[in-house]
Amino acid sequence: MPEPRKKIFVLDTNVLMHDPSAIYRFKEHDIYLPIVVLEELDHAKKGMSEVARNVRQVSRFLDDLIESRDGDIGSGLKLPSAAESIRTGRLYFHMDAVHSHLPNGMADGSPDNTLIGVTLDLGKKHPEADVVLVSKDINLRIKAHALGIRAEDYANDQVLDDANLLYTGTMKLGPDFWDTHAKDMESWKAEQGRTFYRVRGPLARTWLPNQFLFDESERAFQAVVRRLENDSAVIEVVKDFSSAHNSVWGISARNREQNFALNLLMDPDIDFITLLGHAGTGKTLLTLAAALTQTLEEKRYSEIIMTRVTVPVGEDIGFLPGTEEEKMGPWMGALEDNLDVLNPSDHQDRGAWGRAATHDLVRSRIRIKSLNFMRGRTFLKKLIIIDEAQNLSPHQMKTLITRAGPGSKIVCLGNIAQIDTPYLTETTSGLTYVVDRFKHWEHSGHVTLQRGERSRLADYATEIL
Q1: For residue 80, what is the domain's CATH number?
Q2: pLDDT tens-digit profile of 228-286?
Q3: pLDDT tens across 72-84, in order?
Q4: How far is CA 425 from each of CA 154, 279, 433, rounded to the nearest angstrom?
Q5: Which of 106, 411, 430, 435 can bridge 102 by disulfide, Cβ–Cβ 3.0-4.6 Å?
Q6: CATH of the domain at 334
Q7: Tally of CB atoms within 10 A around 112
């Protein structure tokens, strides 16, 4: 069997800005960093943004490699290996001028065109290797393909090949489930009327902790996986939050997935929750209702902290005046809209003073925080809601989740079909990342909400537009 051809990767600046450790992700292959990339990194290092922090981390990695070099920089820097058996390539700094002729209309001074020229030069210099340009910039990859250059997206941080494969948190039981799994089934009741079953069978071995199971027979069975024990699983019949007497802050579940979400949100043993769903599925409303109930009535949490990444959909509106909370105000319209539903202003029985007092009480327990000031914080007995989490990178998501102290719960809300952050996709979003990584942990849960409940107009628009 012939040996696979050697590969040489030319990295674009945006790859390093996106993942500072990218230089360690190419196994036995060599990497080239053109001088134009180093220049762009130097221009982007100032500031407190996530990109600036990533750039400074790249500089530290490169400095460590240079300090530990065992020879001339011109012969390449040996990339560190996690184990002796794992081969790694070398890192080269490309300092030569571009010699390959670029087609008319491609400006010589453009950083993108310089990268294309460097890739062409390396292809001529190393005919024995496949030279690949790696960039998060789609237009640069299109130009490279048009010139016959092999170009790829940086996919090392890609969680899944297809977003449709993402874990939904639910499983529909087939019509033959009870026939194949009812043998040797045990059942018992615990405190507060909770019903448990111990199920054995091939399907039980495929379930995940806190995964919801349902069938659509006349019994309308709905349960959640509580424990996995070798070849068996302990499941619990879920609480019915669709009935009025089980409502949460006046909110009842309108469909099956909303009921599953409320079961997760109200469970004190669940520390980390992710809720996915398109606009109008009730992610924010359900989360706020559960948060207010557990903060004001059950006193489980001392306050609610709500945050989101501030990525504008249209043109940026510039600097905003005021305190941190006032600056975040325009980004938190969803919070105010949902508080209007949870605390209606048209209740006549309470009077104007009663309505204002209730609103002030509710609002006093909700803190709006900016992501920019999260580093170094530790939140004790707080319920943290991360809205629009699909716009966070995996690194940002890790930074936020590790802020949780004892007694805190984190809820991530988002719709991976509406990503506004440049260079993030459905398969590389931090929200996709945590859904996939947390699905095996017994103190986490996930539900993908399917049905819109906002209005018939919103549901129709979601369907046809």
Answers
A1: 3.40.50.1010
A2: 988 889 999 999 999 888 899 889 999 999 999 999 999 999 999 999 998 888 898 99
A3: 888 888 888 766 6
A4: 11, 18, 11
A5: 106
A6: 3.40.50.300
A7: 19
| pTM of the complete model | 0.76
Question: Which string of DSSP letters, residue by residue, matches 375-444?
Answer: TT--BSSEEEEEETGGGS-HHHHHHHHTTB-TT-EEEEEE-TT---STT--TTT-HHHHHHHHHTT-TTE
Spell 379-393 as b/e; 16+ CB within 10 A means b: beebbbbbbbbbbbb
Nearest Cα to 173, choosing from 235, 231, 241, 226?
235
356 and 314 in a common domain? yes
Burial of 326 from C-beta contacts in 10 A (0-12 / 13-18 / 19+): exposed
How far apart are alpha carbons 135 and 137 in whole angstroms? 5
Q: Is 161 inside any structural domain?
A: no
> How far, in Å, CA of 146 to CA of 143, rounded?
5
Residue ending a domain, choose from 90, 121, 152 = 152
Judgement on whether residues 180 and 147 belong to the same structural domain of the protein: no
**Conformation bin of residue 3: beta by default, left when phi > 0, alpha when psi is -120 to 50:** beta
Closest by CA position to 91, among listed 28, 136, 165: 28
Below-70 pLDDT ranges, the chain:
1-3, 82-85, 107-108, 157-162, 218, 310-336, 343-361, 363, 372-375
Could you list the residue range(s) of the whole structural domain that residue 97 is in? 6-152
